[in-house]
Amino acid sequence: MSQRIVALLATLFMVAATGLCGAAGEARVSTQTLPNGMRVTLTQDTLTDIAAFHLALVISPADIPEANTGARELIQQLMLNRLRSAIKPDGELRELAEAIAADATFAISSEAEYVEARVSVPSDMLPLALDAVAEAFFADTQYTDEEVTAARDQLVDAFGRAAASVTDRTYRLFRRALLGKSPLAEDIASTLAGISGMTAEDAHSLRSDLYVPARCSIALVTPLREDDAAAAVATAFAKYGAPATPLALGPVKPAEESAVRVAEGTDMALASMVVGVPLPGYGTRDFVAGQVAFMILGGKGGRLVSDTRLTRGMGLALPRSVYEKQPALEMVAPGPMSVPFLGAHIVANPAFIEDVREVVLAHFASIAAGKFTEQELAGARDQLANQYAVAYDSYSARAQFINLNAVFGGDAGLYAELPKLVETITAEDVTRVAREYFTTHAIGLQMPAT
């Protein structure tokens, strides 16, 4: 591509923030915005020949009309099915099929508040991959009734498997307790009811309204110069959508009071409970302090995971052969969402469930009271820094981390600065955050049917 064309395409960007540079040798991070409102974060890493990007389209159940609950999942399945047909040895995107066979990655999925695409390909295939994702998300297309029926059947099967999982059902109860009446706390029954009546025309109409670049954020980690990467993104995405300002996630707050959601299960002999507390906004310094608190509780040697009353199944006296295969306690780590939280999933004798609740909440309260040692704090900080280093070692995972920070209002340059930031978290920071956020808790509880 000539320098003139590169320069011309690069002018399509409006610079929304200056680039962030670390010390010598660190990758440069710059943020830009397309005229159609799509936010772009670029990172150059000359040590790789891989181009990775993560795209997130901000769309939550709150954006979907009540009559069409589940439309997000149905449209995603339709998109995925179309891509699968194209990315085959005899499909339109056969080159991507060959790259995927050689360890490239190309995936689309949905989380509570966004639909995402995660792609990692040889750098010379970046334009093709960007074009494929842009077309899948934003090109005007009409689905057939047959496609909608197939996608609906796939979702019914997937949700059926989720409904058969005791852990999944308990987690959904917990989210309803945490989020109160928020649409983000929707249940499987509502989702299935919504998609059961959706037509191809419904899917087309909702996709046209909601799948717009202004809702979208993309982060790239590539060996390409910033101008070249910017030009590739502009070529793929600038032709879609009308001029717009970026749309951010709407405000979501946890329930103002502690809450418990309870259900019975006929397919279980033991009680299943998720106990958790909210945390500060994702990608902020206080969120990192909350992560350190999580490590004190649930990291290696942490207070909750070392409490044998919980790890052996309260009142069950589980044999080693059982609890090593299926732990009685599993920690739920903080993740990217509008209302992050830390939690624990515990399986216990139903007669001891109140004891379980008291034990877990007592551990949470000990953090808010500052009853942890400098040694515990140092170990938690080391584990958190190491965990990030391992989890985000791949270029694809790094792009995802950078992009989700942008989606949830964090610092785009946090990736490079994270180890230094973790080191600055003090006991006072952890205690302050716990005192503010651990005052309310949420519980999802399933008991065996009597």
> Structural class of the helices, strands and pairings?
alpha+beta
CATH architecture of the largest domain: 2-Layer Sandwich
Can you write the helix and strand succession as a string?
HEEEEHHEEHHHHHEHEEHHHEEHHHHHE
Look at the structure and give the CATH class of the largest domain: Alpha Beta
Description of the molecule:
This protein is α+β, with helices and mostly antiparallel strands and 450 residues long. The chain has two domains: 3-237, Metalloenzyme, LuxS/M16 peptidase-like (Cytochrome Bc1 Complex, Chain A, domain 1), CATH 3.30.830; 259-448, 2-Layer Sandwich (Cytochrome Bc1 Complex, Chain A, domain 1). The chain is 45% helix and 19% strand. The chain has helices at 3-10, 71-86, 94-101, 126-138, 145-163, 166-179, 188-196, 200-210, 226-237, 285-298, 308-311, 320-323, 353-368, 374-391, 395-407, 414-424, 427-437, and strands at residues 14-20, 28-33, 39-44, 50-58, 105-110, 114-122, 216-222, 259-265, 271-278, 329-332, 341-348, 442-448. Strands 1-2-3-7-4-6-5 form a seven-stranded mixed sheet, sandwiched between helices. A five-stranded mixed sheet has the order 8-12-9-11-10. Helix 2 crosses helix 5 and helix 13 (353-368) crosses helix 17. The longest helix has 19 residues, at 145-163. The radius of gyration is 23 Å and the shape is globular.
